[in-house]
Amino acid sequence: MNQIVLTTLNARYIHAAFGLRYIFANLAELQAQTVVREFTIHETALNIAEKILAEQPKIVGISVYIWNVSEVTELVGVLKQISPELVIVLGGPEVSHPPDLPAVCELADYVVTGAGEKSFYDLCTQLLQRQTPLNRMIEGVSVPLPQLASPYQYYDAEDIQNRICYVEASRGCPFKCEFCLSALDKTAKPFELGAFLDEMDNLYQKGARNFKFIDRTFNLKVKTSVAILEFFLARMDDELYLHFEVIPDNLPDDLKEVLKRFPDNRLQFEIGVQTFDPEIQELISRRQDNQKTIENLRWLREHTGAHLHTDLIFGLPGDTLENFAESFDQLVALNPQEIQLGILKRLRGAPINRHTDEYQLRYNPVPPYNILSTRDISFSDMQRVNRFARYWDMIGNSGRFKITLPTILGDRPFERFLTLSDALFNASGSTWKIALKRLFELVYEVMVGTLLVDSEQSQTVLREDFLRSELKGRLAFEETKPLTKQKVGKGIANKRQKMHQ
Fold it and tell me: Is residue 271 within 8 Å of residue 307, measured between CB atoms?
């Protein structure tokens, strides 16, 4: 029997709950009566509740995020019906900004807002000693980083073999981009480098090879970034793979030199461009040198084998279809492997909420609180861009249509792909559950019938991509064409990234 269960619902099994491991690492003597149990949002609330209650806990701590708040609400309701005496404590970003709180907070006994490593321990100590805390809303107390116990030893063999190991060399962010909760941070604070690298070495020796850094600004302190990259270069093998979130306009020569030494497909950079529009950047307090961003993205593509996952956000205050098209076209010209088209979401506590009235920002009332319309973007156009984003992920980001994509985009990428997106939706009625072979055939029909691409040219590029995808059978337009088996390139990158080679 464990007195305390720490749990959450991850988006997918491959994700590991880094925050829970930090909470567990800092429970001191309470660790002996605590267990971490992770689930996914795809499991039923009844099955999850059964597994939690099998531990016979007195306290259940649950991490709540924008991607799992609906499922957590259902789970908490079930737990309280079955075991009303169970003490449920919520924490995480989705419940950390009172009075703007989701309904699940009314079902819980306590809510810890903000940092939880110390506050959750203090709360559990009181509860297990049969003391009643004065407030059910508990403000989290931040602990100086050197005083935090490390979570990395709590990645077990299953995590290391089958999950992503999340790590952080620094915490916080010095920038104030209003769409992001990190805008509430005062600055970025680094962990002591020597101790951090010792922890990374321990993980590596245990077999960890997939490291995802959650630092908001990995390349903020170049000396530290170079030291971390050198550490992994010295341990480079056929399986090592690193993911970093980087600032797009900060790529000095020292950093460039070490990046050039990495083998292809061992680095993934998540690069938040968000918008190239200077007026919107100023409006949302985003400091970004657009010219340096362009130069750095171009340099990374030309001189490194890093996989570039770039981000744009649609629906920001002041956004229109026209200025978003300009940002998209500029980014396409820089040729990153992926462009993630994010739709603005209302994050609780984010400073961008101050623009809601002036720009008539209208959000979905249910998670993930995506924007529905603005002063300058109609609901109809927002729906079109939502579909655009989904089809772009299937066609542009997947790498399946690498040969075909330039023909689709031509010299007006946003305009032509929006036309393709509209026509695909009219033909299929869906952006989901389209078989890949059927998608190739639909794209052919739209290229020829709507984009007016030459039929033979369309067949040629689509056939080459179809063969690269190693799909079986023939496409409807090539029943008499001979097939020659082709394979995608080799490399450590995952299958999606190999398609971009």
Answer: no
Choose among 285, 223, 215: nearest CA to 247: 215
List the Cα angle 486/490/495 in 5-degree steps.
Answer: 85
Tell me the CA distances in angstroms from 304 to 195, 209, 228, 233, one per residue in order: 29, 20, 17, 14
Residues 6+ apart with CB under 8 A from 54: none
Which residues of the chain are under the pLDDT cut of 50? 480-486, 488
| SS3 state at 411 | coil
DSSP 8-state class, residue 488:
P
What are the respective helix, strand and coil percentages of the chain, to the nearest 5? 45, 15, 40
Q: Would you give the end-to-end CA distance of the chain in angstroms? A: 51
Q: Is 94 exposed, middle or buried (0-12, 13-18, 19+ CB in 10 A)?
A: buried
Length in residues, the chain: 501
CA atoms of 289 and 156, how far apart (whole Å): 42
Residues near 51 by beta carbon (within 8 Å), at least 6 away in sequence: 37, 39
Q: Is the peptide bond before 190 cis (omega within 30 degrees of 0)?
A: no
pLDDT on residue 301: 97
Amino acid letter, residue 245: E
Residue with tokens 């398609």: 499
Q: How many CB atoms lie within 10 A of CB 194?
A: 9
**Residue keyed to tokens 């980083």:** 145
**Pairing between β-strand 267-274 and β-strand 362-363 as defined by DSSP bridges:** unpaired
Are 464 and 236 in contact by the 8 Å Cβ rule? The answer is no
CA angle 88, 92, 96 (to 5 degrees): 95
Task: Tell me how far apart the alpha carbons of residues 198 and 111 are, in angstroms, rounded to a whole number.
Answer: 34
Domains assigned to the chain: 4-145 (3.40.50.280), 155-377 (3.80.30.20), 400-501 (no CATH)
Helix, coil or strand: residue 454: coil
Q: What is the pLDDT of residues 301-338, one digit of tens each?
A: 999 999 999 999 999 999 999 999 999 999 999 999 99
SS3 317: coil
Token output for 223: 């000396």
